[in-house]
Amino acid sequence: MCKKHDCYFVLGVSNAPEPMPTMDGYEHAELFLELEIDGKYRIAFAELNDDARDATPFVETVMINRGLPDRAFCTEEEARQWLFSESDPTKD
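Now predict its structure.
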């Protein structure tokens, strides 16, 4: 879908009731790679629930280690600001 519409900025917003299980972090990264999501994408993820945010730094690290330009945020506004900034997603 992204390639078809030449849209490579992805915003995910969650208000999960509990933290993501550790293995899901690995599975997310593998899924993104299977879908051929690569360095031309910018992926911003906001977890709105403080209680569910514990696993977010781990998932972010897994994604970055797989070469995926992913950043996690506490608010949708912060995620949008990073997503549409001109900074290099692999360096900030």
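The first helix runs from residue 2 to 5.
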